[in-house]
Structure formats: C-alpha cells, structure tokens
C-alpha cells in the first residue's frame, strides 16, 4: 500500500513526458515553418526588406513556435482519445493574435496586411479538408482554397515584382516555397481532426506524399538561408543549382524518410533504404567538396548534422555515442552564430537578422535530425 503514491507519481511523470515530446516536436517544426515564411517575405520585399525584433521574432517566429506546439499537443490528445481537441486546428491564428493591427490595416489601408490573415485561414481550411471529417463536398471546397491560393500566388506574383514571375528560377523557387508552406500548414491543421488512436498516417503511400511535401518545404526554406549567406553580394538562383541541386534532393529524401516507418519489421530495424537515401546525398555532397576544392562544405555539414542528430534521437545505441552525435549540430549552430559577422550579417546576439538566420539554421537542422531518426525507430514505436 505504501508504494501506491510512488507508483502514481511515476505514472503522472511518464504521462507528462509523453505529452511534452510531441509538443516539443511541434514547436520545433512550427519554428522552422515560421523562419522559412520569413525568408519568403524577404523575397517579396526585395532589397528594402528589414528584419526587426518585434516584427520578426514577436510577430512571426514566436507565433509559429506557439502554433506548432499547439498542434503537437493536439497529436498527444488524439493519441490518448481526448474528445475536445478540434479547436486546436485554429492554432495558426496565433499569427493574427500576435499582430492584431492587421485586422485594422486591412480595412483602413486598402488591404495591407491581408496576407497575415489569409495564410492562417487557408491552412485551417486545408486542415479540415484533410482531416477526414465532415461532408465530402464541403471538404473539397475547403481543400480548393489553399490550392487556389497557391495558384493565385503563381499568377499574381509578377505584379509584386517582375523577378517573382514563375518563368524565372527565383520566382519559381518562391512559388514552390509558398505552396509547400501552405501544404505543410494544412497537414499540421489536419492533426486535430484525425481519428483518435492508431497511427496518424495509416498508409505508406500517404506517408510518401507527406514526406515529399515536407522535404520540399524543408529544402525550399533552406534555400532562404543560402540567399542570406550570399548577401550583401548577389545571390544567383539558377534552375539547375536550386531545383536539381536542392529542391529535388529534398523531395526525394523526404519521400524515403516518410516511408521509413512503414518499412520497419516487428522487433528489428529496417531503415536501410531511408538511411541509404540520406547517405547518397552525403556522398554526393562530399564528392562536390572534393571536386570544388572545399566549395559546398556547408551542404556536407548540413547532411552530417542531420545524420548525427537522427542517430542521437534514435533511442538505440551507446548513450555516450548518441550524446556526442547530438552535440555535432549544436556545435554547428553555435559556430554559425559566432561567424555571422564574417558573412555580413548582424553581430552575434545584437541584430534581429542574425537571430532569424540562426533560428532558420537551427530549426531546419533539428527538423532534419527528427526525420533522420525515423528509420531507426522500432516497429510501432512512435517518435513522439
């Protein structure tokens, strides 16, 4: 009888831990999404773009982190069968709450700020369409809204700036980034609507599609980091370098890592194909470093950080090795923060632009590490 309180405390701690993990993963993913969105905004604003603490950190990054955490909490509630979780699909409205002035400027300033309202609403509509609940006709209409938004961007972007036309490599990349961010937001907003219990993604085919979308969004967001590194010098966006060298590999690796959980066999690890996919990218990056005499070392570092971080999060292997592997991406982010002044960004810890780019790098490395951990996870053992 005396052990009952201790057992209850242990159970409560385990329950809280189980809830904290998906919330943390959601927060990291939400931060990565928000940093990529800020990169999109830089391309829209052009050379006049300014990064401020209030507008960037308070109005974009923090709401993205909060929205992601809420959707992560929705996944925990879905797993445990909690009936009251649908309201968490409204998580993207955190962006509107963080910048309530857009509600006024849309009316008083001829529509300025409308994008800050439209983007969350499109994601919420897309999430309901993908959630699997409600009349089919209504869900089709809801799903058509983010699709129309992506098409509208591709058609109307040249009116913002001729360089954003989809007939140019830069414009096509920005259009892909916008569409992929919309799709990822819709996928996140679908989580609260999915059936309680069971796997979130039931089939390998659906996992492959989701992996492709997420991999494409990740790669397109990473391209924003490369643009910032090139500044204040010219950043050249080419069809081959951007699409064949960044976006396509991101899509392919996303497909293979997305399918990795569905390739696992009972009681053993069957992530060889997923790990091999990332290994191929690592080998290609390494070959590029050798051929170019060091150019492209950053690509190799990103891949190695993802592989090391994935192993650290795998839940198997010697703890000392996993800790050492997990320290690699941390060391890269710290080194980047120290070296930002060298590449022409703000001084470390003093400028909003440098903080945003550091958050962009750190969150994308963290998301890659989480994805690279999937092939190592045991059968039916969720990552979160």
Automatic annotation (TrEMBL):
For this UniProt record, give its keywords in alphabetical order, as a comma-separated list.
Membrane, Transmembrane, Transmembrane helix
List the protein's name: Uncharacterized protein
Question: Is this entry keyworded Isomerase?
Answer: no
Q: What is the lineage of its organism?
A: Bacteria, Bacillati, Actinomycetota, Actinomycetes, Pseudonocardiales
Q: Where are the transmembrane segments?
A: 21-41, 53-74, 86-106, 112-131, 143-165, 171-191, 203-225, 237-257, 278-311, 323-343, 355-376
């Amino acid at each position: 009888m005396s052990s009952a309180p201790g057992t209850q405390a242990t159970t409560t701690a385990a329950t809280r831990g189980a809830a904290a993990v998906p919330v943390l993963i959601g927060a990291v993913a939400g931060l990565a999404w928000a940093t990529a969105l800020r990169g999109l905004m830089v391309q829209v604003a052009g050379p006049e773009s300014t990064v401020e603490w209030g507008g960037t950190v308070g109005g974009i990054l923090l709401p993205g982190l909060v929205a992601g955490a809420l959707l992560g909490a929705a996944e925990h509630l879905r797993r445990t069968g909690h009936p009251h979780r649908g309201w968490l699909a409204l998580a993207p409205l955190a962006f509107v709450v963080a910048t309530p002035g857009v509600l006024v400027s849309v009316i008083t300033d001829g529509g300025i700020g409308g994008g800050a309202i439209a983007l969350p609403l499109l994601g919420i509509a897309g999430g309901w369409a993908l959630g699997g609940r409600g009349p089919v006709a209504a869900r089709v209409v809801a799903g058509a809204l983010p699709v129309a938004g992506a098409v509208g961007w591709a058609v109307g972007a040249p009116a913002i700036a001729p360089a954003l036309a989809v007939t140019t490599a830069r414009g096509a990349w920005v259009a892909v980034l916008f569409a992929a961010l919309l799709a990822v937001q819709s996928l996140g907003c679908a989580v609260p609507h999915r059936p309680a219990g069971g796997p979130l993604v039931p089939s390998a085919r659906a996992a492959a599609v989701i992996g492709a979308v997420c991999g494409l969004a990740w790669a397109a967001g990473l391209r924003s980091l490369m643009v910032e590194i090139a500044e204040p010098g010219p950043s050249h966006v080419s069809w081959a370098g951007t699409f064949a060298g960044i976006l396509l590999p991101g899509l392919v690796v996303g497909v293979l890592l997305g399918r990795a959980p569905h390739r696992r066999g009972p009681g053993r690890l069957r992530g060889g194909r997923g790990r091999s996919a990332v290994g191929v990218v690592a080998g290609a990056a390494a070959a590029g470093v050798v051929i170019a005499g060091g150019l492209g070392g950053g690509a190799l570092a990103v891949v190695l950080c993802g592989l090391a971080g994935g192993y650290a999060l795998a839940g198997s292997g010697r703890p000392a090795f996993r800790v050492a592997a997990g320290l690699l991406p941390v060391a890269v982010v710290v080194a980047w923060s120290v070296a930002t002044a060298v590449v022409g960004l703000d001084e470390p810890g003093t400028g909003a632009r440098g903080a945003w780019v550091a958050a962009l790098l750190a969150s994308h490395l963290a998301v890659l590490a989480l994805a690279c951990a999937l092939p190592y996870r045991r059968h039916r053992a969720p990552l979160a």
